[in-house]
Design goal:
Blueprint (H helix, E strand, L loop, with lengths): L7 H16 L18 E6 L5 E5 L9 H11 L12 H13 L5 E5 L4 H9 L17 E4 L7
Length: 153
């Protein structure tokens, strides 16, 4: 049997807690977008350098990112998964998936993904056009094309 609280302050506290509970979003609701540009949660990506490939889901239906997928995508880019600075960012993965979705492409073909600082210095020493502070060194850039997507007509 319910007994109302004797002290009116307790009643106000209970009412405030009820209002907060009703105002809170449902846990089953779709998660808010983490980035401005997002893909469908599916990606097909492969490398011309190391022949690794990944085709599958990188984000669950509830919006959680799947680390096992990122580990495999890092392998495609040739990026060290164990080091945070060389790990492919979720923002880049979302952007690539978005581009693939918008252009209704097939595979994302990576010709140059992660390049470590030492490899970058060697390319510059050979006379290649490589930026001194290339974003490839931080796994934030990629040279790629999307099959089935015409950029120039």
């Amino acid at each position: 049997m319910y007994r109302p609280p004797r002290d009116p302050r307790h009643a106000l506290s209970a009412l405030a807690a009820l209002c907060l509970l009703l105002a809170a979003p449902e846990t089953s609701a779709a998660p808010a977008k983490r980035f401005k540009t997002v893909g469908s949660g599916l990606i097909k990506i492969r490398s011309t350098k190391n022949r690794h490939r990944f085709s599958g889901r990188y984000r669950s239906a509830r919006g959680a990112y799947l680390e096992a997928a990122r580990r495999r995508i890092c392998r495609v880019f040739g990026a060290p998964y164990g080091r945070l600075e060389g790990r492919i960012s979720w923002r880049l993965i979302e952007l690539l998936a978005h581009l693939r979705d918008v252009h209704k492409g097939g595979w994302i073909i990576v010709s140059s993904g992660y390049r470590g600082p030492r490899y970058n210095r060697r390319l510059r020493a050979k006379g290649r056009t490589v930026a001194l502070a290339s974003l490839h060194q931080y796994a934030m850039a990629a040279d790629l094309r999307i099959t089935g997507c015409l950029l120039y007509t």
